[in-house]
Sequence to fold (1019 residues):
Amino acid sequence: EEICYLAPVFVEFENASQRCSWVQVYDVGVKAVLVESSIVWANRSEGTGTSGAPASANAWPALTFRSLVDRVGLGSLVPVEYFGNKNFEFLPDNKTVQKFEVCKFNKLFLPSGSYTIQGRKVRVYQPEYEECWASGLVSQHDPISHIMEITFDNGDENQMVDPLICDDELMKYFSPVGQSVLKDQSKVRRLKQSGESFLQDGSCINVAPHLHKCRECRLERYRKYRNTEEDSDEDDDPNVACRFFHFRRLAFTRKGVLRVEGFLSPQQSDSMAMGLWLPVPAVQEGLDLDTSKYILANVGDQFCQLVMSEKEAMMMVEPHQKVAWKRAVRGVREMCDVCETTLFNIHWVCRKCGFGVCLDCYRLRRNRPREEDEVFSWLKCAKGQPHEPQNLMPTQIIPGTALYNIGDMVHSVRGKWGIKANCPCASRHTKPLVRPSAPNGISQVLFSSSNSTSGTSSPCNLTQSSAKESRSSGEGNSSALHWLADLATQKAKDDTRESGSLRSMMSRDSRPPFGLDSLSALSKPSASSPKLFNSLLLGSSMAQSKPEGSSLRDLLNSGPGKLPQGPGESGVPFPSVFTSSDKLKSSLPNFLDHIIASVVETKKAEGRRAGSSEGGELSVLGGRKDGVMGLSVLEPHTSHSWLCDGRLLCLQDPGNSNNWKIFRECWKQGQPVLVSGIHKNLKANLWQPRAFSDEFGDQDVDLVNCRNCAIISDVKVREFWDGFQVISKRLQDSDGQPMVLKLKDWPPGEDFRDMMPSRFHDLMENLPLPEYTKRDGRLNLAARLPNFFVRPDLGPKMYNAYGLISTEDRKVGTTNLHLDVSDAVNVMVYVGVPEGDENQEEQVMTTIEEGDVDEMTKRRVYEGEEKPGALWHIYAAKDAEKIRELLRKVGEEQGQENPPDHDPIHDQSWYLDQVLRRRLYEEYGVQGWAIVQFLGDAVFIPAGAPHQVHNLYSCIKVAEDFVSPEHVRHCFRLTQEFRHLSTTHTNHEDKLQVKNIIYHAVKDAIGTLKAHESKLARP
Fold:
């Protein structure tokens, strides 16, 4: 028989009544009982020789005193309660089991295990004393050590209590979160007599129709009023999310009238609510030890920023204000009513209508004079009254101090496992980091310090020897290779220039969001930033590299693929320093190209090391980036090649299980990646245009004219597919010319899986890099978001469009320049070459020639063995601001306005043609990746990377979004950027919930690492 939750089970063992300990098991479904150092199964059996009972009587349960499992096998997952040798009675009559009672209460000693008792009422006993010493509320509780801070009822100061020293008793009948009992008349009578408060457990309309109604219930009442056919007495609409549900407390007056008693406080959170937000020290599904380390190494700093921002937000709470606790509601995404960003934790709520604003919107309104124009307008309260910041109630979503507890765990766990950290908070205890000696003999020591008040890193101090001593030999500098490197370095200086301008909107309206001031510093690899994964986990000793090659002999001995790289800020290991027309031709030996590239990197590093600290940041903060050419050594068994002159990794075997190893090294540098050959595994018949037309041809859709962005509404989707490969069947414009069309949002929203299940399965089974792209991939952080929350819509989404043919079409895009808040993989599943245009192939070749693509890509096209589908231009996320500056400048030259709530990239109103791409390179030193996507190619686009697409032929593409640990910092930053967009932007609403994803990814990683802590003690 199963042991029920919280049901006491007492066992007496045969002939061992004086040697056994009495225990109580709390875990649901556990059939084991811990006695002294042994575990036995609690199954019903015949009892023989039980004291005080006939020998033949059935004892329930009666067990033999035999050790079946060692105590270590139980671990810390099953909470148990030790009773010791107490006086007891055992009744073996098969009817009942005598409960062990002390005084008038069922004494429940503090259990061990992973859950928390924060918010519970406890009594504290001094050792060897039977009388209660004090009672109070657990305001903080460490779920691992169980040390708790207790707020005593007698008003004494809060004290920390260790349950291993003091006896603690949970008050069984204390219920921190009450439930509405309005439907139970007997309980209603009791509540009216006692005046006790209870939680509102239904909508305002049904529970308290005469009290202030929240915004959602007011809208629902208005909808019912307008719809006369609806019954006003019907049950709650499940689609209506009442904002006061399980949040507002109600009570009866002496006259039996309901009134508002207040709201829940963070101390009233129960163990069930805390369980959603605290780590469980067990291996989490889909996470192993190494993955957990990697997640903490990449996401830990951003989580620290979250904690800092929440602490700073709490400083805005006035001393007289009380913080309320709004428990998370399953399936409801709490959003700011002003900027539509997902509410993570601290926010401000109106007590009357539930209107809520995030901490950034609250700070903006509180700090800015009323007469200034506002980007975000605030909704009115009941009866048209304005919402004033001082009248709103500070509210948190995460119960108790769980957020801060995990923040402490992050630092503790990273310290135990030797995981490097670069967070600027006061909890980070850093030591001077001695960088490896440079080839010129410079020794650099980097001191890092943090400012606990502002939460930002103070400038680092750099000590280095004089420039004269940096020249150990003049021979190397006078070599032809160094002369070439000097020439190349002069043309590449713009690559390291930092943009000093921020978006005018953000700089005028606000400082960086709380705790995010130093996020820009975090987005750059520091001197202590992780290099390769091994050095990331194994400490600084692994990161120490040999001095970079300072002579031609070193370079020649190293060979291609093994060249050591100097420190550099660029996300591109070997940045191209010439335009497409100036690049060295393929006739030069690749080996010499590698040597020159290595010397260029070394020369650039020397220039940065000799630079000053003007501008507030030292160039030495740009840690060394490992060159992609050396990745062949890391994973020699992965079939791959290099495009874009060695800057773009192309994986050629999508099913290779080791692809992630080499992929990750390029991905964490912010580079796109190409994977080819996926179409070989797809079911081709599912992705034919005719199949879509036959199955869904009668659906009404909207089409977009790619040439002028005009929308054509209410068209049968069959008309689009009929012209997909036959130009004569295409819809025509007012001049009688066939239009270049693309399907708008089809299938709509999240309907792809439901509408096309076979295609969904075919795609998801064949996506490359499943560790990242699968919905449950171990490196897809979106998989860590519990089902309790509204899962973000990460696709898949289809992109169906005709090819752009004419010369004028080269100035427009199928998809204009934009960027996404999440990572994405875009798969070309079908390429259709239309009938009816003899010159189309020649036009495609010209477009590719003018598209700045590299020689290797051109060779793929000219050989003709593969079908080219689309031309992509992708830019590094760090170059987004420079691209904005160019587009604003060009817009001003064309007489365009730049409204504050619009953005030249987010507006998706620009396509960078050859002229603009050349200006971008010449004026800002920005060069992207020009990629031709063939049939079966998957393009991986990093989060925050501006990109545009130009279809060469008719294409069917399918994209799936994911959240990788390497690019969380960009998701973090972009969420703040999107707040400032107008509501017309598709990216305005924060659907990704990046803060929740970060939180639960870190939580799960900590739980897994704590489950493996026993390995730390092993030799």
The chain is about 25% helix and 15% strand. Residues 22 and 83 are 5 Å apart (CA to CA). Residues 1-115, 171-179, 228-239, 427-630 have pLDDT under 50 and may be disordered. The longest strand covers residues 823-832.
